Amino acid sequence: MATLVKYSRKELNDRLRSIKERGDKIVVAGAGSGLSAKAIENGGADMLMVFNSGKYRMHGHGSLSGWLAFGNANDVALEMGESYVLPIVNEIPVICSCFAQDVTKVISYHLDEVMRRGFSGINNFPTMGMVDGQFREQLELTNLGFDKEVEMIRLANEKNIFSIVYVFNAQEARKMAEAGADCIVAHVGLTVGGMIGTSKSLTIEESADLTREIMNAGKEVRQDILWLAHGGPLASPEDFREFLKLLPEIDGFVGASSMERIPTEQAISKTVNEFKNIR
Q1: What separation in angstroms does the CA of 164 have from each of 95, 96, 138, 156?
Q2: Is 226 helix (H, G, I), strand (E, B) or coil?
Q3: With contact defined as beta carbons under 8 Å apart, do 256 and 57 qualify?
Q4: pLDDT computed for residue 55 by the predictor
Q5: What percent of the chain has pLDDT over 70?
Q6: Confidence at 188, pLDDT banded by 50, 70, 90
Q7: Which end of the chain, N or C, is less surrounded by CB atoms within 10 Å?
Q8: Across residues 123-132, what is the average pLDDT?
Q9: Three-state secondary structure readout of the chain
Q10: In the predicted structure, residue 37 carries a pLDDT above the cut 90
Q11: Is the pTM above the cut of 0.85?
């Protein structure tokens, strides 16, 4: 049985900054099962994240399932992490996604519970940053919008809890920087490709431009933030390599579909096909 290693905020920041200081990129991966978590750690990831959407992805459904009413997002992530991920990993830090808009939880108490269960930090997911149009407008007007996530991160900062957050534009980056986020991830959309990924996204060039805009906005507020990229056309190591040519100053990458779902789809399909074609 694995021995749980829980990191303090300072320990986790020091761990990630040491990667940056030696000239390497930080690699963070999402896990929707214990097997994925074990493989992710074995592959050398620097940090692991547990999302409610990971459960649905590994059951064959698209990532947007995590935004829909298929279960309590906070309960799903907490249970999945505690029961299937934390018991299987060795030294990798594990982050739990937290749904700030959950009207069934006192978020302050929920953050305490997440840390008590053995996680090393939190993330804002599902995030209303993904939502736009009239629905987003009404969410904001009824106090269920992105600002609830900013409030949660501000609370985490006061509790000295490490936070890695998703933002989608410059304004959100400024807000999260002001709230005290340790690491900000420029989310450039759902990941393309595979059997259940989206078929529409920004180009790699557009993603780099948006990420640069997000980074510049956050850096106007604070200089000590770690910056990662996620999603959209960045579905493979080759995609991220091309992205780095355009934005070498990015500190790293967060992958969920790109590191768990798509590799699983490809490996299983290829292996079964090879067996099937034995004559």
Answers
A1: 8, 10, 26, 11
A2: strand
A3: yes
A4: 87
A5: 98
A6: very high
A7: C
A8: 95
A9: CCCCCCCCHHHHHHHHHHHHHCCCCEEEEECCCHHHHHHHHHCCCCEEEECHHHHHHCCCCCHHHHHCCCCCHHHHHHHHHHHHHCCCCCCCCEEEEECCCCCCCCHHHHHHHHHHCCCCEEEECCCHHHCCHHHHHHHHHCCCCHHHHHHHHHHHHHCCCCEEEEECCHHHHHHHHHHCCCEEEEECCCCECCCCCECCCCCHHHHHHHHHHHHHHHHCCCCCCEEEEECCCCCCHHHHHHHHHHCCCCCEEEECHHHHHHHHHHHHHHHHHHHHCCC
A10: yes
A11: yes
Question: Which CATH code fits 9-270?
Answer: 3.20.20.70
**Comparison of pLDDT for 259 and 187, the residue scoring more:** 187
pLDDT for residue 185: 98
Residue 59 burial (CB < 10 Å; 0-12/13-18/19+)?
A: exposed
Q: At what angle do helices 204-219 and 170-179 cross, to 10 degrees?
A: 40
Is 39 strand, coil or helix? helix
* Burial class for 39, CB neighbours closer than 10 Å (0-12, 13-18, 19+): middle
The model's pLDDT over 76-89, given as tens digits with 9 standing for 90+, comes to: 999 999 999 999 99
Q: Using DSSP bridges, classify how beta strands 252-255 and 164-167 pair: parallel, antiparallel or unpaired.
A: unpaired
Per-residue pLDDT, 50:
97
Place of tokens 């930090």: 121
Closest CA to 159 of 147, 151, 169, 171: 151
Nearest to 150 by CA among 120, 121, 171, 119: 171
User: What is the pLDDT at residue 129?
Assistant: 95
pLDDT band at 2 (very low <50, low <70, confident <90, very high): low
